[in-house]
Amino acid sequence: MPKLFKEKQDCCGCTACMSICPRAAISMRSDEKGFKYPFVNEALCIDCGLCLKVCRFKHKTDEKDFQVMPLVYAAKHRNEYVRMQSSSGGMFTALSDHILNKNGAVYGAAYDEDIVCRHIRATTKEESASCRGSKYVQSDTQETFKLIKKDINNGKNVLFTGTPCQVDGLDAYLGKGSNIENLLTVDFICHGVPSPRVFLDYIKYHEERSKKKIVEYYNRCKDKGWGHTEKVVYEDGTFDCTSMFSQSWKYLFYANVMLRPSCYRCPYTQIKRCSDITIADFWGVKNSKPKFGDEKGISLVLVNTGKGKEYLDMLHGDIEFLESDIESCISMQGCLKRPSSVDPKKRQQFWTNYHTKGILYVLKRYGRNNAYGRIKRYFTDKDRWFAHLVEHLFQVKKRFKRGRCI
Ligand SMILES: Cc1cc2nc3c(=O)[nH]c(=O)nc-3n(C[C@H](O)[C@H](O)[C@H](O)COP(=O)(O)OP(=O)(O)OC[C@H]3O[C@@H](n4cnc5c(N)ncnc54)[C@H](O)[C@@H]3O)c2cc1C
Ligand code: SF4
Ligand code: SF4
Ligand code: SF4
After folding, report:
1. 87 and 173 in a common domain
2. Does one domain contain both 313 and 367?
3. Which of 19, 72, 82, 243 would you label with 282, given CA atoms 20 to 30 Å apart?
């Protein structure tokens, strides 16, 4: 029976092995941290070795494997509504609209009705709109790779957007036999993906606390401009993008304590990419392009292949582009240089605390949902600390009325 990986850090969960198995002997199962890993059913396996051959992640270390140095652009969608709904400048929507106008299919990550992040297949603009926006949790790609193979072999134009490891896994799965001319792959500069189990716990706790069902969740809403404001929308139509609790997930994310183990040794955190186009936030764009940058969000676009450039050239009706260079963006993009990191002892301690003390404890301890974090936030968020203070005083008053103290 094949041994697909020795250490958990050697499996990114891309599903290439599961998708290629001719006997459907591989299923993806969640571990105690909520990350999915391939599990081989011995009774079905015929030892053909295809799953071992298709797995790139554990062998990937050499940057020469990847494409040549990219062309770099700053980009923004001409439609302001689209830009406000997107995490950065709306590049994803321009690309997906282009594919959908050609009667194609778009694959991207969306939250379902239980706020679980899954890859979906979209053939209309309404469907693809749910893929807009970053979801800071690992997405479940399910049967996506097989569906894409079917689509491209039926002559459909397809856009796949995902993490770099998902893009590379898809490429390995499709191999040379598929009609990959029809496929455009788009990844993003990737900080790493948090645990789906911890995220689900966070959402459930949120619901218990507010006594309302959450029907929509945004990791990056732009109600307060281009940044990291989180927003929940409740069943009754009310929403929360101001309370300290509603702003906790990002701090846990950026604390790097609950990313997938493979993210700490990620071979894709470099300038040479495995996709046709890479999209990201052009943080610091105002320094190099003062007239182009604004508070509504600007995309950083790396064009990695000739196919990527052909697509880009067709987007000028929807997108305003400005040529740039790697030097103008790299200082704000740690994950173009190295994987995210954290002291392994701290990571271990996080998981022990999570399993024994629960979600609220780890949110307070690692997610800045504590007095120290709150004070720090007021005074580091220079533009808005006074508004936050006033907001917070109102919140405290409300909580005292309800007899709560966090
Ligand atoms: C986990 C994660 C880490 C990131 N790390 C960085 C970073 O370090 N630096 C940086 O500049 N940008 C990072 N980004 C990308 C950035 O947040 C924006 O998604 C990107 O700039 C695209 O913006 P947009 O306006 O063009 O598209 P949007 O409309 O925001 O579209 C987002 C696209 O990302 C895809 N997507 C969203 N969530 C996931 C997910 N969980 N798994 C797979 N695909 C997903 C969607 O399918 C969609 O295609 C990250 C995104 C994610 C999801
Ligand atoms: S192919 Fe992907 S999911 Fe399968 S073992 Fe390798 S990295 Fe893990
Ligand atoms: S060796 Fe072949 S049959 Fe067995 S799990 Fe791997 S791909 Fe499936
Ligand atoms: S950091 Fe690397 S391993 Fe982790 S999700 Fe992103 S591309 Fe995959």
Report:
1. yes
2. no
3. 243
Choosing from 96, 134, 254, 333 the residue with most ligand 1 atoms within 8 A of its CB, the one to mutate for a pocket test is 134
Give the separation between CA 89 and CA 323, rounded to whole angstroms.
15
Report the CATH number that the domain containing residue 51 is assigned in CATH.
3.30.70.20
Question: Considering the domain boundaries, does residue 324 fall inside one?
Answer: yes
- Give 167 Cα–ligand 2 centroid separation in angstroms: 12
Any domain includes 1: no
Q: Give burial (CB, 10 Å; 0-12/13-18/19+) of 7.
A: exposed
Report the nearest-CA residue for atom 6 of ligand 3.
51
CA of 218 to the centre of ligand 1 (A): 12
Per-residue model confidence (pLDDT) at position 406:
33
Nearest ligand atom owner, CA of 166: 4
Closest ligand to Cα 28: 2
Domain count, the chain: 3
Regarding pTM above 0.85, the answer is yes
Q: How far is the CA of 278 from the centre of ligand 1 (A)?
A: 10
Distance, CA of 50 to CA of 307 (rounded, Å): 29
pLDDT digits (tens, 9 = 90+) for 328-378: 999 999 999 999 999 999 999 999 999 999 999 999 999 876 666 666 666
Please state the length of the chain: 406
- Print the domain residue range for 354: 196-258+340-402
Residues 6+ apart with CB under 8 A from 90: 76, 77, 79, 82, 83, 297, 299, 319
- Identify the nearest ligand to the CA of 37 by its number: 2
| Token code pair at residue 100 | 């959908």
Mutation pick for ligand 3 pocket among 17, 20, 45, 54 (CB with most ligand atoms within 8 Å): 45
Q: Is residue 88 part of a domain?
A: yes
- The enclosing domain of 269 has a CATH number of 3.40.640
